[in-house]
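Bench notes, afternoon.
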Amino acid sequence: MTHILIGVWFALGRLPFGLYRVASTALSALLALVLFVFARERRMVALTNLSLCFPETSVTQRLLWTVKHIYFYLRTFLDRAWLWSGNAATVRDRVCIENLDALVALKGGPPTIFLAPHFLGLDAAWSRLCLEVDMVTMYSNQKNPVLNDLILQGRSKFGDQLLLSRQQGVRPLLTAMKKGRPLYYLPDMDFGERDSVFVTFFGVQAATVTAVARLSKMLQAQVVPVTTVYRNGRYHIRIHQALPDFPMDDDVQSTQAMNHHIETWVKDNIPQYLWLHKRFKTRPAGESRIY
């Protein structure tokens, strides 16, 4: 059954752009309404996150953001069909790097960490960047082996990319970066207390990994944020200036500064940030559960 669903999914992704856009938009909108009504647990996670991060907004506004978020989540999921089965020309046409010169300028410089917060277009950004540079990244294994293989194959489609599971540890990652590969790193998920510190995210204590601070200090690497926006059928990637005065002497201060930067980008694109993730699941000692 999994193989059949993947076949239908990829067939949709091979439709001509205009037809695909109409079909995927309609399907995403329909499913978003269905999931908003019936996927109660995930709906409540998103609404809880939004209420914690934007307590000054109305309930109506947070409900609207949640519906939009589920829609963008579904449509970016569908778009992985053409990202992972299409050719380079398709990806170049539908995923635009707004300032490609900034990427070119990084080549030959110090080690680079591409800081990629969890905007929903992060896979589109990865695939498009793979057409320009060979990178290294880390991934979490999926429970479904068919889906796990599909993701790895899709993310390895272009260039000579190095994907490391979290179980492989940091040593091969360091080796790859020392040889010149940029690290594409997603810094803003709750992985528990291990290798994390509690710093605020929109004023709420959030367990946040210190890997960006530690790696940038260890390798004297520049941290270059990469954000992605979906707009009118296409993705737009922005390569930002390297974070100034980073890392700091203290890893906690560096990690807090990183979160503050992410907050500014989220405010510009609220519905397309990953609100379905239990970002505040791990709590400091003595605090009650949120979800």
